[in-house]
């Protein structure tokens, strides 16, 4: 069972797509992820983008915890329907789903600079595609100056190839899951 962990919709259950199209992030990993983001004061009042949204659990968790806006990007039509149902069920404002590939969304001009970008692609997504996504986030001004990009991958996957202008800040492992935290680089940036 996938559910919202905390915030205004804490405890609400989420639908998950049928079959093996998605791999929901475990409650333990989501709690650790949001604890790290909240410690940086990035969620409450922030703008969050959930790429490869699946059930929408990550983005809806952010909305439940007070994000001003959440954009959930998912390309599979059936899964988009599940996300829409979850948005309605959870009942938090500011969340919307865009039915498109991640690359096609990110190739458009950014209408908003996001404070948090959550990228939880299928484990079999080639590293070259993940690199392209990271480059598009940076080159198309999708990120606020203090943004954090979190990439969730299998522990068997290599570290993402960070584009010039983005620096990896941290890596946290939880069994089979690894979270990579990165941010735009600035001349006064210090780890």
TrEMBL record:
**Keywords annotated in UniProt:** Methyltransferase, Transferase
This entry's Gene Ontology molecular function terms read: methyltransferase activity; nucleic acid binding
Query: Where does the record place a coiled coil?
Result: none
**Which residues span the membrane?**
none
Report whether Methyltransferase shows up as a keyword of the record. Answer: yes
Highest taxon of the lineage? Bacteria
Among Pfam families, the record links this protein to: Cons_hypoth95 (PF03602)
Any Gene Ontology biological process: rRNA methylation
Which region ranges are annotated with the description Disordered?
Answer: 1-25
Q: State what protein this is by name.
A: 16S rRNA (Guanine966-N2)-methyltransferase
Q: Which organism is it from?
A: Marihabitans asiaticum
